[in-house]
Design brief:
With 127 residues, the chain is of the alpha/beta class. It has three helices and six strands; from the N terminus they run H-E-H-H-E-E-E-E-E. The chain has helices spanning 2-9, 27-30, 47-55, and strands at residues 15-19, 59-64, 71-75, 78-82, 101-108, 111-118. The strands form two sheets. It has a four-stranded mixed sheet with strand order 1-2-4-3, with no helix packed on it. A hairpin with a 2-residue loop joins strand 5 and strand 6. The longest helix is centred in the middle third of the chain and has 9 residues, at 47-55. The radius of gyration is 16 Å and the shape is elongated. The protein starts with a helix and ends in a 9-residue tail after the last strand. 21% of the residues are buried.
């Protein structure tokens, strides 16, 4: 379906792809040994195949999530941003140093910028 959708857009128009599960991640290195680390379903199974499709089109940016931490990866001309999560460590504070929040994208023509916005939520103690 990605291949068909991108074919409809054509190779001249810049494209942003959004996916809940990541196509590319360093998460397994970061989360090694974590109790809630990466599992088999933390990255898209056929991600290599999909990345090849993205690379053969005019994809400029991939926004991805699921891992609850922030990544900024540039690979083969595509910018991959894995957003954090508003709940961070499922409302128990930061996850791997990542505060609860969201990614804000600003686009202008073929260019974009991004920043991670801290949601500003603090863990409440039950003491």
């Amino acid at each position: 379906m990605v291949k068909t959708d991108l074919a409809k857009v054509g190779k001249n128009r810049p494209v942003v792809v959004v996916s809940h599960f990541p196509f590319l991640s360093i998460g397994s290195q970061i989360m090694k040994g974590a109790t809630q680390g990466m599992t088999e379903n933390s990255i898209i199974t056929n991600s290599n195949e999909i990345r090849e499709i993205l690379e053969s089109n005019n994809v400029k940016l991939v926004l991805q999530g699921h891992l609850h931490f922030l990544e900024d990866i540039q690979y083969k001309g595509i910018h991959y941003i894995t957003g954090g999560a508003v709940c961070a460590q499922w409302w128990n504070g930061p996850r791997f140093g990542m505060e609860e929040g969201f990614v804000q994208i600003k686009a202008c023509g073929n260019n974009f910028s991004w920043e991670y916005i801290d949601f500003g939520w603090d863990v409440e103690s039950n003491d």
